[in-house]
Write a structure and sequence with these properties.
The structure is a single chain. By secondary structure, the chain is an alpha+beta fold. The chain has one helix and ten strands, in the order αββββββββββ. The protein has a five-stranded mixed sheet with strand order 4-10-9-6-7, with no helix packed on it. Strands 1-5-8 form a three-stranded antiparallel sheet, with no helix packed on it. Strands 2-3 form a two-stranded antiparallel ribbon. It has one domain: Sandwich (Immunoglobulin-like), CATH 2.60.40.
Length: 131
C-alpha cells in the first residue's frame, strides 16, 4: 500500500511538472544587443546607432525541446533574413545576428516563428543615425 501511495504521488508530481512546462512553452526572454557573453546578452537595447554594424537578437526558449524555431529579420516590410534553430533542451538560449548597413536606418522587427510559421514572439528596435 505504501508503494502504491508513493507511486501515485510521484505520478502526480511528474504530471504537474509536465503540465507546467507545456503551459510555459515558448519565448521566456528576448533582447537586442551588441554582443553575447557566456550565452547571455550584454544589453537590452531598443535604440541602436548606425555606427554599430552587427546587431544580435537573443531568445531564451522554454518547453520546446526537439522543435525548430526561426528568427525572421524584417526591415521596411521586407524579410532580410530567416535563421532556423533546432531546440536541443527544454531551456535553450540562442541568438542570431544581422550585419546592418549604416543606410538602413528605421524600424527593424524580428519575429520568432514556430514550425508552422506562427509568430510566438516579436520585438523591434530603432536603428538611428549616430551623431
Amino acid at each position: 500500500m505504501k508503494h502504491l501511495i508513493k507511486l501515485i504521488m510521484l505520478c502526480s508530481v511528474l504530471f504537474i511538472g509536465y503540465a507546467q512546462a507545456e503551459s510555459e512553452a515558448g519565448v521566456s526572454r528576448s533582447a537586442f544587443t551588441t554582443a553575447i557573453d557566456n550565452k547571455e546578452p550584454v544589453s537590452d537595447l531598443k535604440t541602436i546607432t548606425n555606427n554599430v554594424g552587427n546587431v544580435y537578437f537573443f531568445t531564451e526558449i522554454l518547453g520546446l525541446d526537439g522543435h525548430t524555431i526561426t528568427h525572421r529579420w524584417e526591415y521596411n516590410n521586407k524579410v532580410m533574413a530567416e535563421i532556423p534553430f533546432n531546440i536541443g533542451a527544454n531551456r535553450w538560449r540562442t541568438w542570431s545576428s544581422k550585419s546592418v548597413l549604416p543606410a538602413w536606418t528605421g524600424t527593424w522587427i524580428v519575429s520568432v516563428l514556430d514550425e508552422g510559421g506562427n509568430v510566438i514572439e516579436q520585438n523591434e528596435f530603432e536603428y538611428i543615425k549616430a551623431e
